[in-house]
Please model this.
Amino acid sequence: MGCSSCSTGKDGQPRGCKNNGTCGTDGCNKLTVFDWLSNMSLPNGEKPFAFVEVRFKNGRKEFFKNHENLSLSIGDTLATEAQSGHDIGMVTLTGELVKVQMKRKKVDYKDPELPKVYRKASQKDIDIWQKCRDREEEIKKRAREIAIILKLQMKISDVEFQGDGSKATFYYTAEDRVDFRQLIKDMAKAFGIRIEMRQIGYRQEAQRLGGIGSCGRELCCSTWLTDFRSVSTSAARYQQLSLNPQKLAGQCGKLKCCLNFELDVYLDALKDFPSADTKLFTEKGLAFCQKTDIFKGKFWFSYKEDPANWHELSKEQVKEILEKNKKKEKVVSLEEYAVENLVELKDQIVFENVVGQDSLTRFDRPKRKKNNKRGNNKKSNQRNKNNAQKSNQNTKNRNSRRKKRPAKND
Model:
């Protein structure tokens, strides 16, 4: 993904702006918000909204009050209020859309305790912040080594420095409660900064680290997904997916978020569907449901005594049999309904091999060379003439030898 500030290589391919999530034009960042009210002016007498949305490392966003009425625009680097000192972030949204975002995230803009914007970041502030960002990987590796020495069952996944370099937040994942008091003492002594430990879930870890999913695209959580809804195995059952943990689990080890994307469509289709536990009573015996096709509206039933033979029934036919069973009436057999379905299929016109592409190996056949027919005809005619002349000459030579040969004496 490129933006107007991305450098371009000699071959015309974008090399990327190499700002590591702090792009100047905010055109190649994750969770970017498009300000569709930027070209509209405020009515007369209306003051611009006094809050701005600021993004920090890994998509962390917070709202800050512009109490000094600075002229801010998307992409500006700011020095904002922190618990101690100041932090450096980038403006991602201004104007009335900030009020909409605050209402969506249930943040009261009338709260006087909301943090403030100090100033626009100077070059000195940016240099200090960049030096701290460059140290993060080294400190993360060192922190992991200290945690291994202390034999703590935890994984430090990311480090985030405060803008002034006085504090570092370590994000970690763990299955159980971890006593990291000694870890904080050792890290504070080794790095000379204040330490804050913050536990995150496995999905938040995947969101921060990013990666490529089994579909071949970037992870949804690291590109556009903003909220994590709970995913259960019932979502896979409704969609008739095999309950294979290796296929249903994502890189975070939890069930894939995309299992919820099409779940509502399946639930709507299943509203007027008989249950998969439906039993049909026939004179031939009791029948159980073996398989369903939601979008085609098909069922496959088999008798209890003969589970290997399946009989295809439509949704309407199953409902009809169930209505008769409620009246304590039994149908003769499932074969009658299956025969009706076969007759309907025969009446339908089936087109096969319309364009001649049914063969799966059609691309494996060797290509024949296209020869010039006229040129080949001329060459073949000339070749035939030469062969005929040679044969005539050979016969003449053979006859002349026979005449010159002397007769044998008896």
In short: Residues 19-27 have pLDDT under 50 and may be disordered. Residues 31-39+46-121 form one domain. Residues 374 and 383 are 14 Å apart (CA to CA). The chain has four domains: 31-39+46-121, 127-200, 207-269, 279-347.
